[in-house]
Structures are given as structure tokens and as C-alpha cells.
């Protein structure tokens, strides 16, 4: 197997109509990505070497740029956006970001007090009006944050809100210089999958019950960036299990609610999976119960094959699937349930490092987590 050439197709942010001069297709080095059974495409990191004038554009325009990663087999390996830009030139490192730390729509939930009298009178839980920075939202997308405070006046809470917005409306920029650093100018890009845009405060005024699939579709469609962040929900399979929505007014993030309802599984206590993959494709459905990949540990090439015997390249391996280590426990009677044999691994997380590095983290696919979630329990002690 020839080492793959990993290429990143970098385009303007999905929310932007402008075009920085540095976008295009790049051959990258030091490439790695991670995908998880819950969340899908999670993160990726890689380096691009370029002439200095081209690199300087990334300081101004790099954050939020859309990134599609391909191998030389034209397989789309990963899809996300740039969260951190790091420019290295002549011993100087300039870091911009993280994008996800920006706050350009801020409100404060606080315990209000009226302190004109002594002792101060409690006003209970109060929320300030939202304060927005339109210029930041236009450039980076809407990034809301809900802050909290205790025993403050309305004026103090609004001052806290305004100060935080002013500080956090633009990305952080830091510099580090060393006289011993050498090498060709380059940029290091740290990226996140689009599921991370679901970390917005989700407030549902409907406190009734609904099924998880409808809840997930609601959350995907309620993002404050829905004008440009249009998730493809055709991969969301209907789940008839009923979940409560009574806590959805408590400023929980959309992603945390999706994680909670995904943990419910279904009425048979089977596990279900959620993720955002290429082209904003949302996937929600039951975890598989059959083998998808096979590997022989005694094979020095460490090749992985699909169930039909076809070669699967390491950059194409996805989480949320079963792999069989065919030369482990040879002679064992195949179990009716793959969870009952150490020969089979459920892939919870995939980490790929170019050119051929692959790390598969196993997970448990059992009914206990689903039973406890449906009973309103989070764990054992």
C-alpha cells in the first residue's frame, strides 16, 4: 500500500461570501484526525508550508474556513472548520483562536438583589437582555454564551455582560518568539467537526414529551446560525422512544441534550449513535450488531478489510462499527451477540495519523447505560 497524499480543500467559512487569497487545495503534513461514535468527525490537525505572504492571510481570514480532507484515493476522510490558526515564521509563533471561545451574543442569568435597603432584598432568578456584536457575528457566525452570577444588582449583571462581550467578541491573539527556532515558514491548523457548532444554549418552550429523533431534528434546525448551517437530516432514523423535554429551558446546550437523548437508546434498550459527518450529514440510528471490519493481528502489514473481503484504507475507518480480530480465540464458536466475545471490538473512537497510523479505542455496547438513562440515572457508585 502506497503512502497516501493527504490534501485539504480549504474554502471560505460557510457563513461568509468573502474569499481570502490563501484558500485552495493544499498538500498537508503532520496530519491527524479523530472521529467518535458520539459526535462523528471530532477534530483534525495538520500543517501547511507556504511562502510568507500567503501565510499572513491566515491571521486575518483563517478562522472558520471550511476544510474537506481527501486522500489520493479521492475518499473524503474528514470535514470540519478551522478553530485555531498558528503561524510559525523566523522563530515567531502567532496563535489566533480558538474560534469556539468567541462570544458575540451574551446574556447573564443571575440571582438579583435590590440593595437600596439593608438587608438587601432578593429578586430571585433574573435574566438580562441579550447583547450582540453584529460585526463579530457577521465575520465569525453567532456564538452565544450564557453567564451566571449570584447576588448582584441589574446594573452589575449588565456590566458583567457588557465587559465579557467586549473582551470575547474577537478571537484571542498571542505571540511567542524564540531565537533557537528554525525551519520553513508554515501554518498549523487545528480544526473541529461541525457538531461543535451545536454547543449553543437551546431553549424549548414546549415542556411536553417527544421522541429522540424529533428532538434531534429540532435542535439541528434551531441553531442561531441556521441561515448558513443547514444540516442534512435524512440520516436521522425515527426512534419511537419517548423522552422528556421539561429540562430544555435550563440553558443546556443543544449538543448536551442530543447526548442525553442518544443515551436513552430505544424501547429495547439498544444503543443508538449520533454524529455529524461529511457535507453536514447528521447520522442518528441504532448501533450495528454485525461485523463491519476484519483484521489479522499476525499480518505484518496491519491491513483492515471489510466484511466482504475488500481492503479498507486506514483513513476510511469509521467509528460506531464492529471489528473482528480474526486470529484471536481461533476455534471459538461464534457468539450470537458480539459483546460476548473478546474477539470482537466495538469502535468507540478512531484516530488516524498519516500516512498509515491507526488507533481504535473500544467501547461497550450494552443495555445497562440505556436502562439507567431511561430510569433517570446517570451512573453507579
Short description:
The chain has helices at residues 52-61, 134-140, 154-168, 212-221, 254-263, 368-374, and strands at residues 7-11, 24-27, 29-36, 38-49, 66-70, 76-89, 92-96, 105-114, 121-127, 131-132, 144-152, 173-177, 186-192, 209-210, 232-236, 243-244, 272-277, 281-286, 291-295, 304-306, 311-312, 322-325, 344-353, 357-363.
Protein model, in words:
It is a single chain. The chain is α+β, with helices and mostly antiparallel strands and 381 residues long. The chain has 4 domains: 7-100 and 172-192, no CATH class; 103-168; 196-287 and 367-374; 291-363, no CATH class. It is built from 6 helices and 24 strands. The strands form 3 sheets. The chain has an 18-stranded mixed beta sheet that branches. Strands 8, 9, 10 and 11 form a 4-stranded mixed beta sheet that branches. A two-stranded antiparallel ribbon has the order 14-16. Helix 4 (212-221) packs antiparallel against helix 5 (254-263). The termini are far apart. Residues 375-381 have low confidence and may be disordered.
Amino acid at each position: 500500500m502506497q503512502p497516501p497524499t493527504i490534501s485539504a480543500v480549504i474554502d471560505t467559512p460557510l457563513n461568509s461570501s468573502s474569499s481570502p487569497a490563501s484558500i485552495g487545495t493544499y498538500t498537508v503534513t503532520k496530519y491527524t484526525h479523530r472521529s467518535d461514535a458520539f459526535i462523528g468527525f471530532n477534530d483534525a490537525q495538520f500543517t501547511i508550508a507556504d511562502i510568507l505572504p500567503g501565510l499572513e492571510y491566515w491571521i486575518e481570514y483563517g478562522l472558520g474556513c471550511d476544510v474537506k480532507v481527501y486522500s489520493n484515493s479521492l475518499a473524503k476522510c474528514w470535514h470540519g472548520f478551522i478553530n485555531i490558526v498558528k503561524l510559525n515564521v523566523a522563530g515567531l509563533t502567532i496563535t489566533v483562536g480558538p474560534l469556539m471561545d468567541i462570544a458575540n451574543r451574551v446574556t447573564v442569568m443571575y440571582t438579583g438583589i435590590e440593595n437600596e435597603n439593608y438587608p438587601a432584598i432578593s429578586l430571585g432568578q433574573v435574566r438580562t437582555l441579550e447583547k450582540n456584536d453584529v460585526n463579530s457575528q457577521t465575520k465569525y457566525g453567532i456564538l452565544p454564551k450564557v453567564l451566571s452570577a449570584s447576588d448582584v444588582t441589574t446594573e452589575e449583571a449588565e456590566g458583567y455582560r457588557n465587559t465579557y462581550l467586549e473582551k470575547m467578541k474577537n478571537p484571542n491573539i498571542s505571540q511567542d518568539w524564540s531565537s533557537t527556532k528554525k525551519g520553513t515558514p508554515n501554518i498549523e491548523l487545528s480544526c473541529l467537526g461541525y457538531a461543535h457548532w451545536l454547543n449553543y444554549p437551546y431553549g424549548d418552550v414546549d415542556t411536553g414529551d417527544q421522541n429522540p429523533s424529533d428532538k434531534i431534528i429540532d435542535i439541528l434546525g434551531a441553531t442561531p446560525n441556521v441561515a448558513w448551517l443547514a444540516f442534512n437530516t435524512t440520516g436521522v432514523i425515527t426512534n419511537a422512544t419517548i423522552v422528556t423535554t421539561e429540562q430544555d429551558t435550563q440553558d443546556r446546550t443543544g449538543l448536551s441534550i442530543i447526548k442525553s437523548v442518544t443515551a436513552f437508546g430505544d424501547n429495547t434498550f439498544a444503543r443508538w449513535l449520533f454524529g455529524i459527518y461529511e457535507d453536514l450529514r447528521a447520522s442518528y440510528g441504532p448501533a450495528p450488531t454485525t461485523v463491519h471490519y476484519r483484521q489479522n493481528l499476525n499480518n505484518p502489514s496491519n491491513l483492515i478489510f471489510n466484511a466482504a473481503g475488500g481492503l479498507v484504507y486506514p483513513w476510511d475507518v469509521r467509528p460506531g462499527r464492529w471489528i473482528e480480530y480474526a486470529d484471536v480465540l481461533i476455534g471459538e464458536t461464534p457468539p450470537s451477540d458480539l459483546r460476548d466475545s473478546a474477539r470482537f471490538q466495538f469502535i468507540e473512537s478512531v484516530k488516524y495519523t498519516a500516512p498509515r497510523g491507526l488507533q481504535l479505542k473500544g467501547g461497550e455496547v450494552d443495555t445497562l447505560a440505556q436502562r439507567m438513562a431511561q430510569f433517570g440515572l446517570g451512573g453507579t457508585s
